[in-house]
Design goal:
Chain B: One of its GO terms (cellular component) is plasma membrane. The complex is a heterodimer. By secondary structure, chain A is an alpha/beta fold. Helices cover 48% and strands 11% of the residues of chain A. The longest helix of chain A is centred in the first third of the chain and has 24 residues. Chain B has a domain of 175 residues: MetI-like fold (Orthogonal Bundle), CATH 1.10.3720. The chains are: A alpha/beta, B mainly alpha.
Chain lengths: 447, 299
Amino acid sequence: MESTHRVRRRIAGAVCAVALVLPLTACDALTPGSAAAVPGPRSVPSSTAVPDDDITLRLQFADAPPMVDALIAAFEKDHPGISVEPQYKTFTDYVQNLKLTMTSDSAPDIAQYAVGMTDLAADGHILDLAPYREAYGWDESIPPVSLDQLTAGQNSEATGGRALFGVPAGLSMTGIYYNKELAERAGIDGPPRTLAEFEDQLAAAKEAGLTPLGVGGLDTGGLHLWAALLNQTMPTDDYWDWVNGTKGATLENKAGTTASELVVEWGRKGYYNESANGTAQLDSTAQFTKGDSVFLVNGNWAAGQLATAMGDNVGFFPMPGERADDPTVASGFSVAYAVSSRTEHPEAAGAFLDFLTSPEAGQIISDNGFLPPNPEAVAKPKGVLADVAEGHRRAVADDGITTFPDFAAPAMLDRLRSGVQKLIADRIEPADYLDSLQDEWEEHHAE
Amino acid sequence: MRSRPPVRPPGAPRRSPWRGYVYVLPAFAVYFAFAVLPALHTAYLSLFEWDGVTLGEWVGLGNYQEILQDAVLRRSVFNALVLVVFFSFVPIVLGLAMTGLLARYRRPGMGAYRFLFMLPQVVPLVAVGVTWRWLYGDDGLVNQTFRAVGLDGVTRAWLGDFGAALIAVGLVGTWVLSGLCMMLFLSGVQKVDPSLYEAARIDGAGPVREFVSVTLPHLRGELAVAMTVTTVAALASFDIVYVTTNGGPGEQTTVPGLLVYRLAFSEGKVGLAAALAVVLGCLILGIVYLINRLSRSET
């Protein structure tokens, strides 16, 4: 009995020793993450021929399920051999898991483009579609500026030109809505042609005892306002360089300062709704429909709701430039789709993406409240929706659709949101605000 | 090890000191696999710079150094400590006051009171947050009330105001946790021997004296539990803040829990998030230890 006891003790001792040593020796194996190379090619083939076999494509997405369902139904009718299996995730869920999903072996064939895609593109997890851009002639059916938003700042190895990592289905842009009745009461006779004229209108609204500008600063309304102003003060190319992380790009210059100072100044003059920082975008939109402010900062995604609630009483214009002949520049993005490098059916995926550029798809996109990539192909919208379409047409014609500033780095959204809140409340110097953004930018683009 | 009992019944097997552990093993294995191991893993991850996908890079204590240097992270810890006042001290004081009022005599309808005060505990915190966001809104009930009594100057969007946001969020916590504290104290009071109250009354003690001399000393254990639970709720707060202000305006209501979530899931800084979680965990353990020490040494 004594001996078994000793044996037991010895075993226990050995187990302990192994347990202690294991982590030390296994350190390399325990390093989190994997450096495994991406299988397969990095770009799509240049042929657009689709094989005849039965193919199932898995499509993972986060925006506009009714639109996606309608698009899939129409596509499957055109391509009986290919079926598309939609996998819907809520937006937050989708963005959070995007990197894991797209780097796993079970990655979907097609996935909605989102902030993390830039890094995935750099590591080769999504396919460069540039060969299809030429083969399918997408430049004819989609505004090239919308495709150029999807280059992830890279050049294509296959074509030598700009890379392409997604194809847009619906486009978006931000701007200013105005309440026509209230505007008239303040003596405002139409959309302003310059930024200075817009400031005069804000002052006139204030003078008339109205709240000039509704901002939903609790979430993203403030950053849309700031970005809209920055789009007017900063040359578009410089802005793109900054968002794409081009070496040497910066916001700490006159353009950035002017835009930030305007946000502060308008706050000091009492142009915003009193509780801009405590109001979410959705709430600011609801307040605007009730006539709480003359103007509202928001995007085209609110147009449908505003048209329903206010009818002919609402109009839209993109933020005007500093001079009347300045190009129309506005931030916007698209509901776009990328193709996984792990897909076995790049040709079928290409056929689906090409379908998105067709007039039939354009009508479906337009019916679901987005701006179709090819506006000539769809029925002409009315009312405020027509204003939005016209604003977008002008911005596209001027090559003036820029992406949202938070695409510059994953943490930028939080910096922007809290920073603009401070600008609105006059709690930070514009220089310090820009410095905090630039710090984040440099940290992310240092690698 | 203690000395063994000198006599054992003949034939009975000698008890091995390991046997007890065998009985505990299943529970311990589950606890180890689902609580201890993840915690150790988090601590391990905190030594890497890792985006959650690609190969991590060993940085040792670099992440901890960054926490100490980052103004936003430090601010978040400060905010959490302010929340302790609203999540812990105020509810305990309120809970004690309500206990003092309710415990002295049995009144009809006690069950209904208890139900009402317990209600905030039953509602999911996310629903609580959304509801309070409306209450605090521009045209919300809070502002309506102020306007109704003529205090128009006080009204504001509470959650968007740099001065008021943290207090507004804190008061949501007060609302949620006061009922819990009261419930704990009420159940504690029921253990008190009624003859003690009788004796106190015979000695001419008033309600206040009775509360201080009889009720309060008997509630020491419940106080410790209440303090522990509410302090942890304050320091580890996430849901209420996430739903009401998302840390804004500026960084006025940013708390460590929110930053852990953001760093890990939207900013791809898993190592830094893990380091912050470890610091937060140690802070909580330290404070809980302190509370337990204090409540024990007084007995």
